[in-house]
Amino acid sequence: MAQSIFEQTAAGLEATTSLERLEARGTVRLALKRAGLDAASVNTAQMFVVLDQVLPAELIARGVDGPERVCRELRASLAAAQPPDADLDADDAESPEAVFRRLARR
C-alpha cells in the first residue's frame, strides 16, 4: 500500500532533520492541526500549503536549522511521489485557497 501524504511528509522530515520519528510525526500533526486539517485525509495540495505557511514556524520552534530549505525539500519529494492533481476529487477536496482563508482567521 502506498504511503499516505502524512506518512510521507513525516518520514521525509525525519530523514532530513535531527528529529526522531515521533517528534517528526508530532510536528507534522501539529502543523496540520493549526491549519485545521486531518492527517488521515490531507491531500497533496493542502500539504503544500502547510509546508509553505505553517511547518516552517513549527520547525523554528524545535530548533531545526534551515526550516525553509527543509520544507522546500519535503515539497519537492511530495510533488514527485504524489502530484497535486492526482489526489484532488472535485466533490470532497478543499482548495489551497480555503486552507489559506482558515489560516488567516487564526
Write up what this structure looks like:
The protein is an all-alpha fold and 106 residues long. It has one domain. 63% of the residues lie in helices and 0% in strands. The protein has 6 helices and no strands. It has helices at residues 5-16, 21-34, 44-53, 55-61, 67-81, 96-104. α1 crosses α5 (67-81), α3 packs antiparallel against α5 (67-81) and α4 crosses α5. The longest helix has 15 residues, at 67-81. It is globular, with a radius of gyration of 13 Å. The relative contact order is 0.18. The mean pLDDT is 87.
In short:
The protein is an all-alpha fold and about 110 residues long. It has 6 helices and no strands.
SSE topology sketch:
Blueprint: H1 5-16, H2 21-34, H3 44-53, H4 55-61, H5 67-81, H6 96-104
